Amino acid sequence: MINISSIFAKSPFKPLRDHMDKVVESVAPLNDFFEALFRKDYSKLEKIHKQVIQSEKEADSIKNEVRNHLPRNIFMPINRRDLLEMLDMQDSIADVAEDIVILLNLRKMNIEEELSEDVIQFVKKSQNVCYLARDLTHEFGDVIESGFGRHEIKKLLEMIENVSISETEADDLEDALISRLYEVEEKMNPIDVVFWYKVLELIGDIADFSKKTGNRLRLMIASK
Q1: Which domain holds residue 213?
Q2: Domain membership flag for residue 2
Q3: Tens of pLDDT, residues 187-199
Q4: Which of 34, 148, 154, 214 is the 20 to 30 A CA-CA neighbour of 51?
Q5: pTM for this entry
Q6: d(CA 141, CA 67)
Q7: Selection from 202, 187, 219, 171 nearest residue 34 by Cα
């Protein structure tokens, strides 16, 4: 069992970084998952499904350890509640990745071939927003441990803005995909269509929760 208290005594933000690394592990295989789905490679689909489920479970374990054992009397340059809220935002990303693979492993749905590559690009874009949020989490821990300097804060704010810009680009891809899906939905199984709208929403949620992680950091910086 990880001794979270002793880890926090050495570095208050290492568990937060470790948790985000596990979140990224749950998101990273999603492009391969969708490619396997479109190729009807269901054995690979099942393998990635299990991989994502395991990564999400490990992220949950770190989250629960932090929430249960983060010392209340430890000196930290940010509010304990803010730290836990940021942890929840990060964890929501892994939860969404899990929801996606569970749904699509259960319902191995088809989509019009003309949309499949666009779905992959949308997935990759949402993944990229998550990766930017991961870099931000790591940078934030380093900055806090070394003290808030003007140059460091400026760099953090620029990184947060990059996450926001990338999330907006992901939103644009989602809107375009929804419009294209609407145009071809009469050719598809009606139930599949309903679920594809949900899947696109979930893919967008990965980017959205990544942005919210950055926004939580922005609020913590603003309180300094």
Answers
A1: 11-222
A2: no
A3: 999 999 999 999 9
A4: 214
A5: 0.90
A6: 18
A7: 202
